[in-house]
Amino acid sequence: MTVTIYGIKNCDTMKKARSWLEAHDVAYAFHDYKASGIDRAHLDAWIDEAGLDTVLNRAGTTFRKLPEAVRQNLTREKAIALMLDQPSMIKRPVLETKGKLLVGFKPEIYAGAFGR
Questions:
Q1: Of these residues, 3, 11, 79, 90, which one is catalytic?
Q2: Is the pTM here over 0.85, yes or no?
């Protein structure tokens, strides 16, 4: 099974998700989108499947530091441009496996996805 987890190396939620995968013997590839970037095709696919409000991390400090005028009336196009420019605005982790997309980390959801 191919598992790819996307996020930022030093994020606490990422550390929890990666620890869960390792504890349950789930092999995965890690893509640090702060170091390696992310492409528009991934963002489009994630938003199509999970929705913009799920993929865009509005609670993070990077998003909250944006001017109010930028944060209001945010279209899909503007949000994608922001996430491409500043990947820390993408919710983490994003996990792709066997046609499934998991955004964020909850142990029970991972357990269900991996039959653990």
A1: 11
A2: yes
